[in-house]
Amino acid sequence: NTILLAKQAGATVLLSDDGVVIKKGSRVTQHEVQMMDMARSVGVPVPRVIRAYESADDGFVIEMDHVPGVTLESVFESLNSDELDRIGMQLRDIVDRLQTCVSPNNAVGPVVGNSLPVTDKCMSLASFHDNLSKGISDVVGKPDVYSLLQGMFGDNSHKVVLTHNDLFPRNIIIDPTTLVIQAVLNWEYSGFYPEYWEYAKLLTLERMGSSWGGMAIKHLRRYPQEYLALDEVFIQFPQRVN
Question: Does the N-terminal peptide bond of residue 110 adopt cis geometry, omega within 30 degrees of 0?
Answer without folding.
Answer: yes
